[in-house]
Amino acid sequence: GVQIGINAKKYSKTLKEFRHAVIENEDIQGQINKLRGEVESFASQFPMPGLEER
């Protein structure tokens, strides 16, 4: 996650440009989507606290 932010910073100098890079840059979006998949895969191994298993 931190590395994604560092990579996005390469495309920007201001916070506005950083936000734009995170949203619009295909390379950054690819990294975010890959991380999202890894997190979802890891988290799906565990039950949701407070919910009964069905």
The DSSP helix count reads: 3
Low-confidence stretches: none
* Global shape: elongated
Sheet with the most strands, sense and barrel status:
none
Please report which band the strand proportion falls in: under 5%, 5-15%, 15-25%, 25-35%, 35-45% or over 45%: under 5%
Number of strands: 0
Query: How big is the Rg?
Result: 16 Å
**Helix content estimate:** 55-70%
Question: Helices and strands, in N-to-C order?
Answer: HHH
Estimated structural class: mainly alpha
The end-to-end span amounts to 33 Å
Number of structural units classed as domains = 1
Mean pLDDT: 91
Protein name: Serine hydroxymethyltransferase
InterPro entries: PyrdxlP-dep_Trfase_small (IPR015422)
Organism: Magallana gigas (Pacific oyster)
